[in-house]
Amino acid sequence: MKLSNVRLIMCREIRDQARDRRTLFMIAVLPILLYPLLGVMMLQVTQFFTQEPSKIFIAGATETDSGPQLFENNRFATNLLSDLQHLGAEANSEDAESSMFVIEYAKKHEDGTYPDREEIEKRVRAGEFDAALYFPPGFGERLEAYQVELLRGGQPVGDLPSPELIYSTADDGSFAAMSKIDNILGHWKERVVLSRLQASSIPISVIDPFNVQRADVAEDTGHKNAAMWSRMLPVLLLLWALTGAFYPAVDLCAGEKERGTLETLLSSPAKRSEIVLGKLLSVMIFSAGTAILNLGSLGITGLFVVEQFPHMAPPPLLSPLWLLIALIPMSALFSAMCVALAVLARSTKEGQYYLVPMMTVAMPLTIAAVSPGIELTLGTALVPVTNVALVLRELIVGDYASALTFLPIVVLVTIGCCILAIRWAVDQFNSEKVLFRESERLDLGAMFRDTFLSRRALPTVGMALIFGILILTIRLVLGFAGGKLMGDSTGTALILKMVLIPQILAMLLPLVLFLFLIKNRRQTLLLNRWPPLGGTLIAILMAVMLNPAIRWLGLGIMKLYPPSEAGAEKIKALVELMMSIPLWQLLVLFALVPAILEELVFRGFTLTGLRQSGRRWQAIIITALIFGFTHLTLQQSLNAVVLGVLLGYIAVKTGSLVPCIAYHAVHNGLTVGSAHAMTAGWLESPALSWMFEGKGEDLMFTVPVSVGGGVIALFLLLILAKLPTRATSKERLQERIDRGYVDPDEDVIRNVRSVGVESSGGSGE
Q: What is the reported pTM?
């Protein structure tokens, strides 16, 4: 790789973007002007903002005459309005109430009766009043009698009389009126209590024994209000870095396709990897520049805003430094992701549509860092994007010990994600089919006919992805509707429903439906040849040897991401339920049935379809991710992804589904059997002390057994790796292209790859 080529391409792209006035305005001018304009507009709007007084209907006011007064001269008592000064009127003045309320008192009807509660409720519901305050008949006398009886130590007769506040949550004005009246009633209730205590010669200190003194130690450290800034600044930084990378990436990739300049760049002496790095560095510069300009403009505007609120403080002095340091890797990650996605686009307009899925993925990871209860731990340090935001949060608040503890892990994870994203972008540029996609019209009818009505020899990549998404959707629906499907079943019937309903509805039925669209069904399911005896035996032995290590992996995942109390209770209840049925039934339901159906679905149909892209490991990993996501709990999903990668590799090396089924069945069988034996206490025998340690739920394999089993499994994996790979024709073609093999008839190879000619064999014949 020549760095001079990378530098030339980067400078070329920066010059092209600098000539685009729209790009310069969006990246440089708009951030500088946006926040001051927003601040000025807010100040202007607040000058014209006035809160309309609430229309209140009062019924039964004459019933409140005993004790401290709620009303004075047909108004709320002015000494009860002290907490509502922020509404614009001074306390203890007649203007205070007039600015907040327009009060109408109940009047007698022609028949001499007052409006009842139902009539008042109808008037509030109709919007005639924002809220109503209704006092039941005899409220004052009943309240006084009730309290007097309590003070005497007796038992009052009847219920405690209470006023009723009638409002509607469907109307914001009604809800606001309710809040103001509730505040007034709270003050009135306190005064009633104080008057009763004074009448009974009881000191007021009984209900107010001490005062709380507050001391903010953050004022001396320079981190006052740091918690607020630590939740706001990292989120804004990450979102600006993503937005700043997206639009230049679309213009540099999809825009060049439209302008017809991409072919000229590809015909230059620069390698594809050099082209990608040049574009990536230029996009990074714009991403970081956008974030820095937005931060600077927001900071300058924020200084003036902070001066208007004495209780607020500016961010800690070192906050800009931490933000700039974190901006470099995040700009690299987002830029690589945006470049890879932008290459897929056939036009600038299509590329802009990709911002939605990008934000859909990035937003939850970013917002998770500011969610209550999310702390920087070993588990969260392994989550991309979220870990950077959490480290920034700890640095801004001054908790350097916590940040430095997990900083190495966060750095390794972020660098790993950047490398994978850059590798993905390079692979996209190495794919002629991706670079030269034609900008055809979207025809849903033709897409449906091509996918579902045209029978193919083997499933396509698109068909495999649709199949996987359908399974995930059904599995999610079944997870939400699980309680209704289980009904009142108990015991064996409940276990049968828990296992068979998801397996049949989410696995078997979609598989049967999609197999009707395929001609070579046995080849699709990897059942077109006799299962290799050696590969099957290796798979079984690996399942046995890896079981202790898998158990430790599951324990580690549970430590990193502990389940909630409700989830732990469900697991405990499930184990107790499993103990109530015979072991052979558990093995059939939890080991044999899932092993057969899940392998047919994932290592059969899904993996075969994804391998048509020519990327073997990419197909294995995507299949493993889909397999993991079908397990709805996070702990099971992570464990299943690891298992899915291993099973996919076994399927590729052996070319048969039987070893995968054997591994899956033995793995599940050992898990279920050991849980059953552990609960029964069979494994706590002194004769097995060399193999197990601990008691009850904490019973685990010993470290020597786990390490020894892992070493043997690694040796078996090396033997499996030496077996010839059952590659498809498209995988062999992709390997030749990746090695740079130049065929005398290279145009034929490219046409075969771009058109996607169906292979009659597809298994390496």
A: 0.72
